Recover the amino acids of this structure.
């Protein structure tokens, strides 16, 4: 079971935050334009091995943002969502 050592259980708040809707910081809204950039950020946060394992999974292929949310802490998740919407961290609230 070492392959799951970095996976976490998602809380109800986290599940809601990846289900879409809303305009709050860190709330994922499907259909955003900068998936490539956000996935590069995800990879930088977790490292290549964990990134490849996460994105190589069935869930990673179907819903990249759910897998990213499982691995990223709240601060990095908010950055991930910002990048996916705006393409970079330019203008990200500090």
């Amino acid at each position: 079971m070492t392959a799951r050592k970095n996976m976490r259980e998602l809380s109800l708040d986290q599940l809601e935050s990846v289900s879409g809707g809303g305009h709050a910081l860190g709330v994922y809204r499907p259909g955003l334009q900068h998936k490539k950039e956000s996935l590069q950020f995800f990879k930088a946060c977790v490292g290549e091995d964990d990134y490849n394992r996460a994105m190589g999974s069935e869930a990673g292929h179907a819903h990249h943002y759910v897998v990213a949310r499982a691995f990223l802490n709240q601060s990095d998740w908010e950055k991930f969502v910002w990048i996916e919407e705006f393409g970079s961290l330019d203008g990200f609230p500090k």
